[in-house]
Design a protein that fits this description.
The structure is a homodimer. By secondary structure, chain A is mainly α. Chain A folds into three domains: 21-67, SRF-like; 73-132; 135-195. Helices cover 59% and strands 6% of the residues of chain A. Chain A contains four helices and two strands. A two-stranded antiparallel ribbon of chain A has the order 1-2. The radius of gyration of chain A is 22 Å and the shape is extended. Residues 80-88, 126-151 and 169-202 of chain A have low confidence and may be disordered. At the A-B interface, helix 1, strand 1, strand 2, helix 2 and helix 3 of A face helix 1, strand 1, strand 2, helix 2 and helix 3 of B. Chain B binds a DNA duplex through helix 1. Chains A, B: InterPro entries: TF_MADSbox, TF_MADSbox_sf.
DNA sequence: CCGACTATGGTTAGACG
DNA sequence: GCGTCTAACCATAGTCG
């Protein structure tokens, strides 16, 4: 007989890059499957078209598409051409297409930012409530983990914004080519681990 | 007073296209947000690149990309075929004037963002330390007020970024009509085999 | 390494303001 | 129509075979 707990079940994890290589691979596979499944359900439910492209840490490409990856991507890129095909040169069309694409990405980032902001607002309330008084009644451990997630998420969004600026700059420096000459390196040296603010004297 | 059950909670739904138009819109928004969030977590966790493009039932395009939609899509297309971008030069001088202006604003905002980020990083340390344990020893009142200020400041900067997007859009709306009112709501008979791809266990 | 299992965290359908 | 709440469904981290 066993009164011992067999599994701790799912535990909360930090939303930071996994260092352990094998565990990273497992999580990549699991979550990629989950993401594609979500996308599939999404398409079925709403009857909309969607495409996902992901690159594994080993740079292998995986994709999902309804009705197909190419169809959706082409539609995404052609949407711009259709909008501007009344104007003159091919170069102009291409240029403006890029602009519209940038605009789309802005909107995408805005949505993500809204989410981050919402979450962080919630967190701010919590922090404030904590500071006010009843912090000894607050389930601090859980909540503050969420806080960190919020902050982490918000910072990532900030980075993306900055990167997008680089893209825009590149667009206009070189009139046509959209190639990513911007670094695109996610250089967030997150120093989220730091108890050095006040040492634990227990 | 009510002893009655207020909500039935989440109920299982058929994975078929929703007919009710307004409910479809709600579900589209909710699930798109969830999908993008999942993708964001996925990227953070695995450090991999990913892009999502979706078209709403009204054919509006939404996208998510890490580090950017274009980067990922280009990388994806380059894997299959090495198509070369025909580079040309466009003589849109007056256009560039506006462009430079936008770029300047971007740089100005970036500086502010860097500052906001720096301050927020500091705050993150505080929050982290607080979450760890000895929060009851922290001079919470002071620190968290600063936290809130940092957050507020950061969010204001983000909002400015978003506003700048509108400027970018506005710059080009005189050259090209931006809003697509085509919206020929077409009902696709979605025959997407969603869950066949991933066997539901059990 | 991969699949199965389980407990738990996370997502969201439904109801309400 | 959007935000919020809640309960229930769903995804998945940790674990074992």
């Amino acid at each position: 007989m066993s009164t011992k707990k067999l599994s701790k079940g799912r535990q909360k994890i930090d939303m930071v890059k996994i260092k352990n290589e094998s565990y990273l691979q497992v999580t990549f596979s699991k979550r990629r499957a989950g993401l594609f499944k979500k996308a599939s359900e999404f398409c079925s439910l709403t009857g909309s078209e969607a495409a996902i492209v992901v690159f594994s840490p080993g740079d292998k490409a995986y994709s999902f598409g309804c009705p197909g990856v190419s169809e959706v991507i082409e539609k995404y890129e052609n949407e711009t051409s259709h909008l501007v095909n009344s104007s003159s040169t091919v170069e102009e069309v291409h240029h403006r297409a890029n602009i519209i694409r940038v605009n789309n990405e802005f909107e995408a980032l805005q949505a993500q930012l809204d989410d981050a902001k919402k979450r962080s607002d919630k967190l701010a309330e919590i922090v404030e409530a904590t500071s006010k008084r009843y912090w000894w009644q607050v389930p601090i451990n859980e909540l503050n983990i969420e806080q960190l997630e919020c902050l982490k998420f918000a910072y990532d969004e900030l980075d993306k914004k900055v990167q997008l600026r680089a893209i825009v700059a590149g667009l206009f420096t070189d009139s046509i080519s959209f190639d990513n000459q911007n670094a695109s390196g996610f250089g967030r040296a997150n120093g989220l681990q730091s108890d050095k603010f006040f040492n634990n004297d227990e």
